[in-house]
UniProtKB/TrEMBL annotation:
<dbReference type="InterPro" id="IPR045263">
    <property type="entry name" value="GLUT"/>
</dbReference>
<comment type="similarity">
    <text>Belongs to the major facilitator superfamily. Sugar transporter (TC 2.A.1.1) family.</text>
</comment>
<dbReference type="InterPro" id="IPR005829">
    <property type="entry name" value="Sugar_transporter_CS"/>
</dbReference>
<feature type="transmembrane region" description="Helical">
    <location>
        <begin position="149"/>
        <end position="170"/>
    </location>
</feature>
<feature type="transmembrane region" description="Helical">
    <location>
        <begin position="373"/>
        <end position="392"/>
    </location>
</feature>
<keyword id="KW-0472">Membrane</keyword>
<keyword id="KW-0762">Sugar transport</keyword>
<feature type="transmembrane region" description="Helical">
    <location>
        <begin position="176"/>
        <end position="199"/>
    </location>
</feature>
<keyword id="KW-0812">Transmembrane</keyword>
<feature type="transmembrane region" description="Helical">
    <location>
        <begin position="348"/>
        <end position="366"/>
    </location>
</feature>
<dbReference type="InterPro" id="IPR003663">
    <property type="entry name" value="Sugar/inositol_transpt"/>
</dbReference>
<feature type="domain" description="Major facilitator superfamily (MFS) profile">
    <location>
        <begin position="11"/>
        <end position="488"/>
    </location>
</feature>
<feature type="transmembrane region" description="Helical">
    <location>
        <begin position="435"/>
        <end position="455"/>
    </location>
</feature>
<feature type="transmembrane region" description="Helical">
    <location>
        <begin position="61"/>
        <end position="78"/>
    </location>
</feature>
<dbReference type="InterPro" id="IPR020846">
    <property type="entry name" value="MFS_dom"/>
</dbReference>
<keyword id="KW-1133">Transmembrane helix</keyword>
<dbReference type="GO" id="GO:0015149">
    <property type="term" value="F:hexose transmembrane transporter activity"/>
</dbReference>
Length: 506
């Protein structure tokens, strides 16, 4: 517990408030849907300053819900470069502008278009959060707590969802639904204040020219001790093992400065990427300066990355085509017909189970392995989805409740946390950023498709819509059983050792 300081916990809390807001916005429209869309209210009087509700059909409400994902796609694509040039902390500080303005626009909306614009703005903020929060957490976490810090992002999201569902229990009325939408802006202010007292990521600072001393001070504050050279030295070792530039120590800098005065012929062995500033720096980029950048098109087209690409596509598409966000976004609507008085409460139980199993997954992921949990998750979700379809079709209230909770629980142990966690374990370091960007883009697009189309398809098929998800998950299980490798405690090279197009036990 020596390195788990109060200040480190406080900074982590400030960062995870971004994940909390992301989760809150995912769940905020679920419970108050019928009130917001005038299902049980008369058509509003347009002359009033704030109308009671905003008329929407199922297709329009589906678009309103899913527009968050288009905003998220934009935010996620823009955020990596900003975070790398301006810093993780600065990016999250500025991102609160989106997370403040969006809820204000939605909370005071008097038209459908205003709601859509506000949710799009919120989506951009959520997209930035989805990229920067995991990065920031990973870079401040002590090595022995990396697993716990890794699950903080997902836990923040599910607790945010739970909080919005609890609010919905008490505020799904007029004007309560506006309070649900507006209250998110207060969270952005809280995060802004907390981040004001937080340090920048030490690893980010160390990657900047003349940033060594700033990185050292930040790390000392996080660890609560002055002796941090050993940890910084560990960065160098890890970087060296992964083929990256590591820490340049003071002696190396002095040698470099002396070598600068030598004729160019004497410097053939000096790498261009090494900083020549008087102060040491940690530089995390390719050691071979002639190495081509791996962009998305090269990653997709390369035979070398084909096995990893198949795994990435399967997991990112399956995470969303499992139907999880149809349940998270519309569980109240799904259950309302057979549980008219308790569907809101079941929605809260779903979120509680999601949070509990997310914590459990932090233990299971390292103990049971990624492949095993993913296959269990896909198969059990397929079964739960089929049971849910059957029970809704035949108005079996208890079975519907149990199956939908089981559906979410089995998602949380596998398909929830693993699809992004596994990316650095199946591609080399030079390609992690590209693979993550591709995976995140696919994820947002698939999320948009499911969220926007679900309500309309459900109007046609009723509960049988979950047979579609069950079938897809069963097919995904069959494919996954063939192509998913085990990555636990293995290097990338070991993961793909003896690869022959299907999973090989080693």
């Amino acid at each position: 517990m020596g390195e788990l300081t109060f200040y480190l916990i406080a900074v982590s809390f400030a960062i995870v408030l971004g994940s909390f807001q992301f989760g809150y916005h995912i769940g905020e429209l679920n419970t108050p849907k019928s009130v917001i869309s005038c299902e049980n209210l008369p058509t509003p009087n347009d002359d009033s300053s704030l109308i009671r509700c905003i008329p929407m059909n199922e297709g329009e409400f589906g678009l309103l819900t899913s527009i968050l994902n288009l905003g998220g796609l934009i935010g996620s694509l823009l955020s990596s470069r900003v975070a790398d040039t301006k810093g993780r902390r600065w990016t999250l500080l500025c991102n609160n502008l989106f997370l403040f303005i969006g809820p204000i626009v939605m909370g005071f909306a008097n038209s459908y278009s205003a709601l859509v614009i506000g949710r799009m703005i919120v989506g951009i903020g959520c997209g930035v959060t989805s990229v920067v929060v995991p990065m920031y957490l990973a870079e401040i976490s002590p090595a022995e707590y990396r697993g716990a810090f890794g699950v903080m992002n997902q836990l923040g999201i599910v607790i945010g969802i739970l909080f919005s569902q609890i609010q919905g229990l008490y505020l799904s009325n007029v004007p309560g639904w506006r309070i649900i939408l507006l209250s998110a802006s207060a969270m952005s202010i809280i995060q802004f204040i907390f981040l004001g007292f937080s340090v920048e990521s030490p690893k980010y600072l160390a990657s900047r020219t003349e940033g060594y001393q700033s990185a050292k001070r930040a790390l000392q504050k996080l660890r609560g001790k002055t002796e941090v050279e050993e940890e910084i030295g560990g960065w160098k070792q890890i970087a060296a093992e992964e083929g990256l530039e590591g820490l340049i120590d003071n002696q190396q800098n002095e040698n470099l400065q002396q070598q600068q005065s030598l004729p160019s012929s004497s410097q053939d062995n000096i790498e261009e990427s090494i900083s020549t500033t008087p102060e040491p720096a940690v530089v995390f980029h390719a050691r071979n300066s002639n190495r081509d950048d791996i962009n998305i098109w090269k990653f997709i087209g390369s035979l070398h990355y084909r096995p990893a690409l198949k795994v990435l596509l399967l997991l990112q598409i399956t995470q969303q085509f499992s139907g999880i966000n149809a349940v998270i976004n519309y569980s109240t609507t799904i259950l309302k017909k057979i549980l008219p008085t308790s569907s809101d409460l079941i929605t809260v139980y779903i979120s509680i189970m999601n949070a509990i199993m997310t914590v459990v997954s932090a233990y299971l992921i390292d103990k049971s392995g990624r492949r095993t949990l993913l296959l269990y998750s896909m198969s059990l979700m397929s079964l739960a989805s089929a049971v849910l379809a059957f029970s809704i079709t035949y108005d079996l209230a208890l079975l519907s409740s149990l199956s939908i909770i089981g559906f979410v629980a089995t998602f949380a142990i596998g398909l929830g946390p693993i699809p992004f966690l596994i990316i650095p374990e199946i591609v080399d370091t030079h390609s992690v950023a590209t693979a993550s960007s591709l995976g995140l883009s696919i994820n947002w697009i698939c999320n948009f498709l499911v969220s926007s189309l679900f309500l309309e398809v459900r109007e046609i098929l009723g509960g049988k819509v979950f047979y579609i998800f069950a079938t897809y998950l069963f097919v995904a299980y069959i494919i996954g059983n063939r192509i998913l490798p085990e990555t636990k405690a293995k290097t990338v090279e070991e993961v793909w050792h003896d690869w022959s197009g299907k999973y090989v036990k080693t």
